[in-house]
């Protein structure tokens, strides 16, 4: 009887964690145990692995009187999911002498079916990135995950359909006796293909609402959060869906970052995330599903919307603590989650698009229908709201592509400005008070106009600075080096009307 060691990995928060799998076989009555903090899915791999080995043409571990101990290290890391099936099977077969290969610099990932078929896993991209960082040269995993793993340069990817394919590829014993080994073809490097995205809505499809369209264009250009306020049926949801089409295309680093996040969450389904995400959770969604968390912290909707749009329809109907918890991701572009069994910081740099009715029944201000809400209901409803901007108007049917060109150009102007000042931010909405003093220069006349308007409207310091950011974005859309009076005046139109 002998010992063998093979390497695998699992998702740990948004990164991969290398796991060493050791198998020791000794004489005695049959027993099969897995140690190293395995969860139920890992512990059940004993039966999956035994069935897969038997149905791949080898003797089942359960057919022998032997003690099998599988150790997963580091021992203090909770092992979750079916990532280790392939590695455990190969480690056992190596220890039992059924196969001979050098396990160093190789990493094995994948769930096994009882027939030996390899099934897909989540989090492939961060796992491949971690393997590359730790010096591994080859990675073996299910065929359906191979394209995602091949986004990582500098590591050879082999996508297999079954345990038998992997064994035939790596078995050195078969080579030494002249056996015919079936080789797995290397997965070619995956190139990001920005194929035409199927649009759910286009601005040209929306008639009227000219003021809303202008406000959304400014929000997209500067990365500003927005809210739409109006009766049901006025096009708030359609405008929000069309809004995501205005955001600039992602670069390769952002594609890798987003694909990794969505792969870990299981929402990528083996596809690359090549466009800014649009997430629209229902107002009955739980706090954990939106903010993130759980016993072992997992990303929520605010992280899945990273570098994209988080659309919250019927905004006041969300749980109060969900609305209050949005403050950190909106201000810091991260969400920090602490639990008894771990803590995590997830990225959450998104544009919030909130839509709401004027009152619980939706008829306040309507000329056709009467509002039936009690005054106390109206007060409670308004107290739940964060700051919002009132948007509305007529329309000219301009296509989203034309607006996107202006938005992209404005974003490029901002990036150049931030680079000049040595700032590692990408949009005007991310500027702090110090940035505003150095990057938003106002003439005395324009400064006096802003100060007078702020005093007359009773703007808070936060609303004052927000007006400056929006004015800077409007100037960028017009390719104006300086913020002029007309930019300030337009920005003031979008000021918060509640809790300024």
TrEMBL record:
Keyword list (alphabetical) reads: ATP-binding, Nucleotide-binding
Name the SUPFAM superfamilies on file. P-loop containing nucleoside triphosphate hydrolases (SSF52540), Ribosomal protein S5 domain 2-like (SSF54211)
Q: Which GO terms describe its molecular function?
A: ATP binding; DNA binding
Q: Name one Pfam family in it.
A: Mg_chelatase
Q: Where is the AAA+ ATPase domain?
A: 222-392
Coiled-coil spans are none
Q: Which family does it belong to?
A: Belongs to the Mg-chelatase subunits D/I family. ComM subfamily.
Q: Could you tell me what this protein is called?
A: Mg chelatase, subunit ChlI
